[in-house]
Amino acid sequence: MIENLLNWLQQNQRLFRDSVLQRDPNLLPDGESIIIFLNLLSVCLGEKGNTQLRLIQSWAFSNIGDDQALANDWLIMIRLLKETISDLIMTDFPAEQGLLYWRELDRGFTYALIEITRLASSSDYSKMLAYIAELQRQTEVLEQSKSNFITVAAHELRTPLTVMEGYAKMMQGLIPPDCSQLELMLDGFQNGLRRLKSIIGDMIDATMIDAQTLSIYFQPVYLDKLLQMVVDKLADSFAERNVKLEVRPLVLKEPIYGDPSRLYQAFTKLLSNGLKYTPDGGQVMVHSAMVRQDEINEEIHGYIDIRFADTGIGIYSSDLEEIFKKFVTKTDVAHHSSGSTKFRGGGPGLGLPIVRGIINAHGGRVWAESLGFDEVRCPGSTFHVELPVRVKMPN
Ligand code: ADP
Predict the structure, then answer these.
(1) How far apart are CA 29 and CA 40, in angstroms?
(2) Which ligand 1 atom is the nearest neighbour of the CA of 330?
(3) Ligand 1: residues whose CB is within 6 Å?
(4) pTM beyond 0.70
(5) Which of 174, 211, 248, 369 is buried most deeply by CB count within 10 Å?
(6) How far is the CA of 352 from the centre of ligand 1 (A)?
(7) Which ligand 1 atom minimizes the distance to the CA of 350?
(8) How far is CA 223 from CA 253, 256, 263, 388, in A?
(9) Quick one: pLDDT band at residue 178, thresholds 50, 70, 90?
(10) Residue 43 main-chain phi, psi, to 5 deg
(11) Burial class (CB in 10 A: 0-12, 13-18, 19+), 176
(12) Ligand 1 atom 7: the closest Cα is on which residue?
């Protein structure tokens, strides 16, 4: 029986080839490769399923490989061949015999379809993986060049700024006693320089945090005293805006190991933000609680949660994490006023990323809570700074 079918297949090979090529002349498999496939079908006839599968797998691997376009065209070609052969079988043989022959051939077609589909989708998959890897690489390059740009820009700006500061100081000594107008102008100039210096400093800090090169110099710190220093520095700004600042004594009296200048920087930013985003007549309060008291080891005796709460405009819940990203400022830029402590006096959006960088480098966490953003009802915001009570110098 197989002999008959084999002969029939061999005799009609060219007919099948010409017929499928006529039906779709634009497919990638050419006449020669169609004949190779038809020969393969003949070889498979009478073989066991496993052997057929192996033969077809090796044909697909060496004739299609990872050529996705070819695999897709072979899927169409197989369908055309199936249709052509099954039509002719039914005209050349009596129905029952034709059906039997067709069953013999159909297994080869099915294996071929499975194998080609597998190749087409696995090359799809590997192409997609390669595409994702390329996208990732491009994003990293972009991030790196962004960060390089900020570093270079910040360093390049610092030098002329220092020169300007020096000249401004020299000019101060030269102002005649009766020239108050000039003194006022020089004052404004120096204020501008100070603001510029702080923005450039923030840019440098933010890039160091990104590059994980921010150095933390641990030493014993009395948090209460540190907070008081920040309060003293900002007291005039709070008074100017008529915002009440209340700092409750911290629950921790003992010193902890931390970097006083970095913590000072972080607390200053949080209190300044509290002031900036609270309308005149409002209030900013600092209070604390001991938390995670069961987390004790040789170096760390639990945590202190310092809360910076204000009665300001609040934050949308969808922005509570977003605001810790670099250059994200959620207030309308049109509302920005120039001062760093003026109501909604917007900045470059580096404050909170720096705060998070500093607190994380201490082994702590910082996050924001708010009932939402509403500049009329002012639901307020609370920033939590959770610091480890470090009783020993870290290694
Ligand atoms: P900047 O103040 O320079 O815009 P920050 O990183 O300090 O940058 O803050 C990012 C954003 O987070 C601010 O633009 C503001 O929308 C929001 N934000 C920060 N602190 C507060 C606060 N206390 N109340 C309300 N919004 C705040």
Answers:
(1) 15
(2) 16
(3) 273-274, 277, 310, 312-315, 323, 328-331, 346-352, 381
(4) no
(5) 369
(6) 7
(7) 6
(8) 8, 8, 9, 12
(9) confident
(10) -60, -35
(11) exposed
(12) 351
Under 8 Å between Cβ of 315 and 330: yes
CA of 234 to the centre of ligand 1 (A): 17
Render pLDDT for 252-267 as a digit per residue (tens, 0 to 9).
999 999 999 999 999 9
Q: In whole angstroms, give the CA distance from residue 391 to residue 337.
A: 43
What is the distance in A from the centroid of ligand 1 to the CA of 349?
7
Question: Which structure tokens are listed for 341?
Answer: 């402590």
Q: Which residue's alpha carbon is nearest to atom 20 within ligand 1?
A: 273
Range in 38-47, 193-202, 308-317, 341-350 the model is least confident about? 341-350
Q: Measured between alpha carbons, how far is 266 from 355 in angstroms, rounded to an integer?
A: 5
**Which of 15, 10, 68, 70 lies closest to 40 in space, CA to CA?**
10
Residue 335: which pLDDT band, with cuts at 50, 70 and 90?
low
Tell me the two tokens of residue 212: 């994980």
- Nearest C-alpha to atom 3 of ligand 1 is from which residue? 347
Q: Tell me the CA–centroid distance for residue 380 and ligand 1, in Å.
A: 12
d(CA 239, CA 253): 28
Of 220, 245, 274, give the one whose Cα is nearest residue 385. 274
Average predicted confidence (pLDDT) for the chain = 90
Q: Please tell me the distance from the alpha carbon of residue 76 to that of residue 78, in angstroms, as a whole number.
A: 5
Model confidence band, residue 159 (pLDDT cutoffs 50, 70, 90): confident
What is the largest distance, in Å, between two alpha-carbon atoms of the chain?
122
* Closest atom of ligand 1 relative to the 373 alpha carbon: 25
Predicted pLDDT of residue 333: 58
| Interval between CA 162 and ligand 1 midpoint (Å) | 28
Smallest CA-to-CA distance from 223 within 254, 247, 245 is with 254
How many Å lie between the centroid of ligand 1 and the Cα of residue 350? Answer: 9
What stretch of H or E contains 207? helix 180-210
Cα separations in angstroms, 109 against 97, 176, 185, 237, 386: 19, 101, 89, 82, 66
